[in-house]
Amino acid sequence: MTRVFLGLGSNIEPKEEHIRQVVLLIKNHPRIALRKCSSLYHTEPVGYKEQDWFLNAVVSCDTDLGPLELLQETKKMEAELMRKRTVSWGPRTIDIDIVLYGQEEINLPELVVPHPRGLQRAFVLVPLAEITGDQVYRGKTARDMLSELGEHETVEYYGSLRI
């Protein structure tokens, strides 16, 4: 089993319900064991700014799925929650990103892990730090990476995720 961290985000109402639904899909997947969920965070959009703010969270899971199999399963979950890819970095019902897959570094055309820019975004690092504590990746904790960001997008505590 490999410990993975998935970043979750939604900025189309009902945002909290979309995240709750995808966590239930993850929890009920026969080859993914949900371990921990971060709180929800209200975050300003990055890149394409002309859209509603996001709710973001990070979950930790154990899985025996390979990285590409996991990617395929997360895409199925996004499709089940009606994810449409119309504008790059645009509004979405749900976004599931493989932030970390064990300690592996993966560089394939369809999948890059750690997630590109994920470890440079406060909306990923804040919830990641919440659930990883002192866990180290590439010699640093998520808190270390967050402190190195300097000025970053706004990330506000929203509340606990009730499943």
Give a written overview of the molecule:
- The model has no long low-confidence stretch (mean pLDDT 90).
- It contains 4 helices and 8 strands, in the order βαβββαβββααβ.
- With 163 residues, it is α+β, with helices and mostly antiparallel strands.
- It has helices at 15-27, 67-80, 122-132, 142-147, and strands at residues 2-10, 32-37, 40-43, 54-63, 95-101, 106-107, 112-113, 155-159.
- The strands form 2 sheets. Strands 1, 2, 3, 4, 5 and 8 form a 6-stranded antiparallel beta sheet that branches. A two-stranded antiparallel ribbon has the order 6-7.
- It has one domain (2-159): 7,8-Dihydro-6-hydroxymethylpterin-pyrophosphokinase HPPK (Alpha-Beta Plaits, 2-Layer Sandwich), CATH 3.30.70.
- Helix content is 27%, strand content 28%.
- A hairpin with a 4-residue loop joins strand 6 and strand 7 (112-113).
SSE topology:
Elements: E1 2-10, H1 15-27, E2 32-37, E3 40-43, E4 54-63, H2 67-80, E5 95-101, E6 106-107, E7 112-113, H3 122-132, H4 142-147, E8 155-159
Summarize the structure.
The protein has 163 residues and is of the alpha+beta class. It contains four helices and eight strands; from the N terminus they run E-H-E-E-E-H-E-E-E-H-H-E.
Characteristics of this structure?
163 residues, Alpha-Beta Plaits, six-stranded antiparallel sheet, two-stranded antiparallel sheet, 4 helices, 28% strand, globular
